[in-house]
Amino acid sequence: MSELAPRYSATSLLRARFSRDYWRPLWRRTKPKDAYDVVVVGGGGHGLATAFHLARDHGLKRVSVLERKVIGYGNVGRNTTIVRSNYLLPENFHFYEDSLRRYETLSRDLNYNVMYSSRGVVDLANSDDEMVLYARRGNAMRLGGIDAELLDRAGLRRFMPELNPDLPRRYPIVGGLLQRRGGTVRHDAVAWGYARAAAALGVDIVEECEVTGLVTAGGVATGVETSQGFVRAERVVFAVAGHTGSIGRMLGVPLPVETHLLQAMVTEPVKPLVHTVVSYMYGHAEVYLSQSDRGGLVMGGVLDGYPSYTREPEWHRLEEVVQGAVAMFPQVAGLRILRHWAGTNDQTMDGSPLVGRLKYDNVFLNGGWCYGGFKAIPASGAACATLVATGSAPDLIRGFALERFATGHVLDEKGAGPFPVRQ
Fold it and tell me: How big, in percent rounded to 5, are the helix, strand and coil portions of the chain?
């Protein structure tokens, strides 16, 4: 050992481990004040990012985030951590590209390591017809200034030697669409980083504070009723992930949203095997897979297909996802599943989000994120904060307004409503 290296005894390490200063909270625990400029309902990624940008970019000093349980408990901690911008429609790919670019610098912006890994995202094609569809999407992305590469089998072999596309499979692999800048970000770190940065700017983060109603007077909202009492607010933002439909019912506004479960699972850790994020469709099912920093293979599939708030995993979905993973990588067949969970998804009629005013001029909705919730957090927070602070929606989110369903300007990536297999 170098003479310059510090020396620690076992006793000193144990003392440090259990000392009061070892675990330092990243944000202060507070009770809600009587009044705020903006109350953000929901302490997930979108709510925290909105509060952070309200304080940093727009100088609002009295901002609060009210979370029903604890920070990181909801969907921000129940996803497969994938970030990408490989969409077809300009409204979507410009938005998600803005979010991906923000993810690239998020660790520096928050002064907190969110573990962004630009390992690439590959969608595998099963037929020549599907390659044509991927070429169309890739060309649309490239026209929008977004990186995209169409790979044939030889290209896949070079980029993913662990895949071996030449293996006989029931649904063969003929190529794929690659976005090299896509990848993964540590989901917990995103929640903690935004909460820490927002609190440092003076945002009150109030946990275990359930919002039970909206109080109005003279045609505007005046505050919210909570489990900790009434909180007055000049503006209210609802960012409640899988419970957007409940907000619509609370306000008496029917929303084109259903809540569905999206399940995921992770295997025991193994040595580095899969160096990218890969998606594979077989028949009417799909699996997307990546390897975490801990070595486990993180996998997910399609929606369960019926409304539910239970977050209960189901065996048939586990079986379907695992079958696809083994079809891609036969070498993983003997691995054990360590954890299996489900997150709630607000599925709109066209599979795109809802960001805009809701019933009152000073009430705003940031929800309906369908499959794109985690990857959208940075852009969503910045754009929603601009809307709330200035009253004008940035161009980036104008297409996400609720009014599009009345005017027919829907943003349906696949022409399949809320259930596109590959959005």
Answer: 35, 30, 40
141-172 exposure pattern, b = at least 16 Cβ within 10 A, e = fewer: beeeebbbbbbebebbeebbeebebeeeeeee
Asked if CATH classification 3.90.770.10 holds for the domain at 27-118+181-256+349-423, the reply, yes or no, is no
Q: What is the mean pLDDT of residues 249-265?
A: 95
Average pLDDT of the segment spanning 281-299: 94
Helix (H) or strand (E) holding 125: strand 121-125
Taking the C-alpha atoms of residue 80 and residue 321, their distance in angstroms, rounded to an integer, is 13
The fold for domain 119-180+259-346 equals: D-Amino Acid Oxidase; Chain A, domain 2 (3.30.9)
> What pLDDT, in 10s, does the model give residues 21-42?
556 789 998 999 999 999 999 9
- Using an 8 Å Cβ cutoff, are 60 and 54 in contact? yes
Q: What is the distance, to the nearest Å, from the Cα of residue 244 to the centroid of all Cα atoms in its chain?
A: 15
In 3D space, the residue among 289, 248, 293, 247 whose CA is nearest the CA of residue 270 turns out to be 293
What are the tens digits of pLDDT across the range 326-342? 999 999 999 999 999 99
| Contact of 44 with 239, CB cutoff 8 Å | yes
Q: Does residue 81 contact residue 185 with C-beta atoms inside 8 Å?
A: yes
pLDDT at 4 over 50: no
